[in-house]
Amino acid sequence: MKNALIAVAAVALVVWVISWFRVPHAVAAAAARPWPGGMGTLDSVARRFPPRQGNEASVQLMARANALPKNEAVDAFMRREIERGALAIGEPPALPDVSAIRELLLREPLVWERNEGIGGDNEMPARRAAQMTLARTLVASALARARADDPVAWEDLRAVWTLARSLDGQPQMMMQTAAFSMARMINAVAWKMPLPAPAWFGEMQQRDPVRRLLEAFQDQAASYWRDGARIFPTKWLADSVERDRAIAEMLFDETRCDANVPMNDLGVDLSSVWRRAFRYRAEREATANALRVRQGKSIETASRCSDGAWTFDGTTLRFSREIPTAAPDTPMPLVLRVGPDLRPHRTTDTEGFGAPLQRKRYVLAFLTFITSAGRKHARHVPFARRTVG
User: Fold this and answer.
1) Cis peptide bond upstream of 34, omega within 30
2) Reduced to 3 DSSP states, what percent helix, strand and coil does the chain have, rounded to the nearest 5?
3) Other Cβ atoms closer than 10 A to 266
């Protein structure tokens, strides 16, 4: 009898503790507060992204993407060129033929399967990995073509941009970070492409990824809120929902490009994603200004970033501050060695920006050095016969 009374008392204590922690009204109130930019409440997220089936083009593309071998040499080449702050493009490794993939991307509209939840369906992580491998291979192909002054390089990049835009309808953060990474890769190498830049690239540069990343952030919070509200609607959950909504408001109003964002409560830590996203605003300006210089135009010194501006001294384009990011991120530099278009953009030094070893005999007579004397000499050398030493 005594043991039974103890058991009843223990159960009653557990029920009392649970009832004390359970605050469903507070959780509901936090979820009902609208997110910035007209994104609505957490309850509205599922209605904006109902499940759907993928189309045949997406199936075909995945079959081709899965057939691409993972190639560390291709990845290293692409990363090296993104980090290289000079027009010269190094010797590429052997690259697979991506012409059929490029044509499929540019010919057929893609519709991807869509499911609810942070991870979507079970195949989403593998699908994302294949999409990123495909994007990196196309960017590497664009660089190799640009090295040969082949304008089809832009079509390789347009195919990557088409792939990135096809992910717009995917609410999950892992898919939106994939789309963001693709756009960032395109921008990081675009300033090395043959002139002129096509119209679609200008449209890409006008598109800021922060909004779609915020929508994915809201989707992540909504997923944790739905599960938590159904199982254990605690004060901690209510506070976490409100904290993440407040972070979203801060991000929506952020004007700096060197931004440090606090860690969110619900889901994976996104602070490094936001740092890259705001830095990307300066990266887009770097590319736009570099293309302007190559066309013989003046740069835009003003920046969208409230904490920086641009300068150009005749050889070096420079943002007024460094914006470091954490490894494994490999961003384009915000200091670029650029001038009026000097072709060919080639170097056999794949680790730096040294002069080519296979020079024609006449080149040495017209070598221009990165010095004041070299710049004076350059004014007397025709563009077609200049090279950078």
Assistant:
1) no
2) 55, 5, 40
3) 19
